Amino acid sequence: MTAGGAGDGASAPARVPLSGMWCMALAVLCFSLMAVCVKLLGQGMPAHEKIFVRTAVTIPVLLWMLRGSGLSPLGNNRRLLLARGALGFVGMLAYFASLSALPLGNAILLTGCSPIFAALFAQRYLGERAGRAAWTASAICLLGVALVAHPEPAAPLAASLIAFASAIVNGATYTVVRATARTEHPLVVVLALVLVSLPVTAVMCAWHWVWPHGSQWWLLAGMTVASIAAQIFMTVGMQRETASRATSMFFLGVVLAMVWGQWLGDPPLTWTVLTGAALIVGSIVGPAFVRRTVAAVSTR
Predict the structure, then answer these.
(1) How many domains does the chain have?
(2) Does residue 94 or residue 145 have the better pLDDT?
């Protein structure tokens, strides 16, 4: 075959999609930037209002993207999508509330426990084997939570419990997102969250609304853009990886939260919090490392 013939028959190289773990890493980065914006907005703006603004902007964008892809916004398994939307909203409301009431590092540490619950829920409902390592990791994680949630003037116990509740609900949410991989496009899964969030937060805003001013508009815009990107990356990542492996990437959010938190003026990290952080991160990363090691040995 001549060079010309080879050139005529050649086609553009196929685009290799991002791996699930890369998508999760990008999702965590975007989530951390969203958290910074929420934290800077402060307690002066209620959590439900932040969610409402984010949702109201997100829906037209997602509908436009779905129309361009020729997809139905209602999806296939509507009961599963409704569960994803309801659980996601509850977890997000608790998450936003804890971000306003806790130092950023503490809030992310506690909400970052969600991979433990995702693994346990996935074992129960999706048949994804977690094994004894998951239960051991859960015990270690809870010990770390006890240290991080220790009541302090800057970190009241009630706010810490809200953050931890968010982790449990988000663990269930990630499991549902994983289940949607069988029937739904990632954009449809993301839309399910905002379709539930919008009417609920609209009613809440009718009772309590605070008009943004000045830089708050820019923070709301940054929060919205970061959250849209985070939701899309997370949904794609969860659909391409097992729930326990994909959510293990959330340990990166803990590191980022500590960096952002100190930059935003959080109280200096105490040894109690640092020890708790090490236990939480270890409980999330450890089982994934053990699984990879066992798999590598078994293939030799």
Answers:
(1) 1
(2) 94
